[in-house]
Description:
Order of helices and strands: HEHHEEHHH
CATH topology of the domain at 8-69: Arc Repressor Mutant, subunit A
CATH superfamily of the domain at 8-69: Winged helix-like DNA-binding domain superfamily/Winged helix DNA-binding domain
Strand content: 5-15%
Distance between the termini: 25 Å
Structural class: mainly alpha
Number of strands: 3
Helix content: 55-70%
Number of helices: 6
Oligomer: single chain
Strand order of the largest sheet: 1-3-2
Amino acid sequence: xxxxxxxELEARFAxxxxxxxPISSGELSKLAFEALNWKKTTAFTVLxxxxxxxxxxxxxxxxxxxxxxxxxxxxxxxxxxxNTFNGSLPAFIAAFTTKKQLxxxxxxxxxxxxxxxxxx
Length: 120
């Protein structure tokens, strides 16, 4: 699986695409200038990098997603758990909850999710 990490500015640029797609590359460079003060060359360079990562595609000047924002977040989360906790979701939850107390609602939601998963 390709590394899907994005820096803060790349993520802001990606949000522009997700919020406006399908979008022409020319319009995208204008929005990137307005939101990020990027020159056209910077926008196209970052777009190329995000396309190389398999997040977006630029087909004849029309930019669309390969991964939705939710799909991207899901894959990034999977990569984080895999790389940091050897793929162990229980180890991740244990580490997460050592500093943060889960609310009753969060615990109920986790139980619901596990029950739903077991039912599949």
